[in-house]
Amino acid sequence: MRDVVIAAAVRTPVGKRNGGLSQMHAADLSAIVLTELARRTNLDPRVVDDVIWGCVSQVGDQSSNIGRYSVLAAEWPETIPGTTINRAVPANCASRRWRDTSPAR
Questions:
Q1: Where do the structural domains in the chain lie, given as residue ranges?
Q2: pLDDT at residue 25, as a whole number
């Protein structure tokens, strides 16, 4: 990993317990974000080295590694690793800190 970039800001809608998004698997919802990110930035997923995903209140189906499962659900190359960070409110800050101190950097 040579250059670490934040290409654009894309997020999922905010849902509520038993709301309209409750039947959607977290990885599928996250895959929509990755797909939209690639579309907005004209990004070829084959050039992505890693995905660092922030997910707060990981419970049930989303208690696994949503960062990795999102890559697979978006049908990006299986060679792209993914990790999930849960830091409550400042998940985006933790993602940047993780990126900046990563040994791969």
A1: 26-101
A2: 87
